[in-house]
Amino acid sequence: MAQPTNQNLIKLYSSILFGFAFSPSLKVNILESTRIAHFLNCKLILLHVGKNTPEKLSEINSIISQTEHSNLSIEVLWKEGNPESVITKACLELNIDLLILGALQHENRFQFYVGSIARKLTRKVNCSVLLLIKPSETRVPCMHVVVNGLDAPDTPMAIEHAFYFSSLLGAQQITIVEEILPKEIHVTVEDDRSLKKANIIKQRLRHREESRVKNIVSNLPKNITQNINVKTQSIFGKRGYSIGHYAEVVRADLLVMNAPVKTGIWDRIFPHDIEYILSDLPTDLLIVRK
C-alpha cells in the first residue's frame, strides 16, 4: 500500500487486538495486522485462545521477527477458555479500539473465529472490528474504500472512520453508498405513466440522499478528506446485500459499515444489513463501533 498521506490526524485508534489461531494463514494475517498497526500508529496485541507451548511461542516469535516495522509495540498474550468470551473480555479490559480477525470469504468455509463466533463478536465487543479476507505477505495498495451512507445515527462516524483509514493507508477514492429501499418509491409500475412517476421519485430520493451525505462529508476535518476523490452512489435494493454486491463489483479494497445494533431473536431468524455481508464477504470489512 502507498505510504500514509497525513500524520497530523486526530487519533481514532490507539490499541489493536488480533485474535489468532495457528492456521495456514497465520503468518500473512500477522504481517497484515502489524502493517495496519504501523499505519494507524497503534500498539498491537496478539491474543491466542489456547495453551502456550514452546513450539507455538517459537513460531510466533519467528513471524514477528519477519515483520516490516521493527519499532512497532507488540505484545503476545495467551489465554484459555471459550474464544468468544475470552476475546470479548480482553477487548474490554485492555481498552481495545480495533479487533482484527482473519476470515475466509464464504460462510460455509469459515474457520475458528469466523462464522458464528465472528457474528457474535461483532455484536458483543465494545470496539470496532476488522475482518481480513485477503491479507498479503507484501504490501498491496489500498486504492478504493466503500462506506455505507445509510440514514442512521452512527453513519457520520462510519464515514469519518472510512476517511481516516483512507488518509493513513493512502487510498485515492471513497465511494459512499446510499441504499434506498424500493418501498420508498410508493409507486406500482403498471404503464408508461406510472414508470415515469417512479423514475421521478427515484431521482428525488437520489438528490435527497446525496445532499445528506455531502453535508456529512463537509463537516469532517479537512485533513482527512483532502486529496481523496469522493463519489456518492445511490442503490435501490435490500440493505446490506446491495452494498456488499456493489463493493464486490467495483473490487473495493475495504468496505466500511456501521456496527449492528439489533441483537434480538428476530435478527437471527430474519437476516439484516450486516448479516448478508458476513455470510459472503466481498472484501476486507471494517465494522465501526463507538
TrEMBL record:
It comes from the Bacteria. InterPro entries: Rossmann-like_a/b/a_fold, UspA. Residues 70-131 form the UspA domain. PANTHER family: STRESS RESPONSE PROTEIN NHAX, UNIVERSAL STRESS PROTEIN UP12. Belongs to the universal stress protein A family. This is Nucleotide-binding universal stress protein, UspA family. It comes from Maribacter arcticus.
